[in-house]
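Input record (Table S2, row 429):
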Amino acid sequence: MADLMTTDPEVGAIIRAENRRQHRKIRLIASENYVSEAVLEATGSILTNKYSEGYAGARCYEGQREIDRMEQLCIQRVKALFGAEHVNVQPYSGSPANQAVMIAMAKPGDCILGMSLAHGGHLTHGAPVSISGMLYRSHQYGVCRDTGLIDYDQVEKLAHEHQPRLIFCGHSAYPRIVDFERFAAIGRSVQAVVVADIAHFSGLVAAGLHPNPVPVVDVVTSTTHKTLRGPRGGMIMCRQEHASAIDRAVFPGLQGGPHNHVTAGLAVALKEADSAEFRAYARQVLDNAAALAEALTRRGFRLSSGGTENHLLLVDMSPRGLSGKQMAKSLDAAGIVCNFNSVPFDPRPPLNPSGIRLGTPAVTTRGFRESEMEKIAAWIEQVADIRADQSADRDQRRERYREIAAAVRALCDGFPAPGLRYRSNGKPV
Ligand code: DSN
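Output record (D-serine complex):
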């Protein structure tokens, strides 16, 4: 970062400090990862200099020869990896991708059906505080209280009752595999368009380790930066019959010029994902999540749905007498980063809920395996015990978190992640 450090040392110092944080902490936020040096180089390239509203061969500005080649290469790679008939790689992220699908497939005021945020769905699947819940008549389904699994009978009942134009499946905080065939059948029975949002697990789908909804449902959306390990962005895959509606909705319906540097980074990530190395990575993501779930369960933690079948787990902290927020903040002080999260049927409010969400994509990229999951589970237990210890005051607790954070740093120093240039002490890797 020599030029940056000369031109703007203030910004340079912030990036350097964030680099240190990403190195020295155990990052368990289920939606985060570390991209490769190659993805960073493409994303940080001069393609950021170019405007290209429109699509290959039909742009609104001249000078598009290389951009057209880049976007088409990226689209071809998505098609090859996911078996999609039509692909749009221009959405700026997952939320605009979902919004574009709504623009393409429904009119404001139409009914949509999606999974409740409180049960693991996403804001953009019809939550009342999001535009998807403001512009559309939204109905929400959830999970069964006894199993923690999606209540497909409820989905069917709500679909027949409200005749939605769109049904969303997919999630941000559901530790199980979604039955896409069942959603497709429900959609057919009420002539609804079924949309699968695979943002969280698209990398697992690409690796062939998670059912692929692309041949099963009408439209599939995804972010590109979670398990898929690309730059921050979004994409839409659909049947040919929906191609022009989707493309028109993205541009000019919702967005202006695509972020060509991000398209390039995504193309690189897709090439990386189409490899034996990536498939082994995705396998380890699942194995690590299973190992972490098992180690936490053995220590008496309560997991939503009793475990995990994907890259994430939801831990209910209420049996330990803690809120999810208390636990997430205490873990951060101990060098372990996650987010507080509602658990299904949570009696607590969304901004101070009962649970934490943990995911293994980022730690697996830096090389952690089952033995590191065991260490993480032990630290999580120690942190919960320290936080719940009424005999300790705040300073005593802080001191004990600092001791764990030092052990976390020592572990992390042995697992340098791609793209990070500085170790926890600020020295170059
Ligand atoms: N913010 C993402 C997540 O953490 O799941 C979803 O948009």
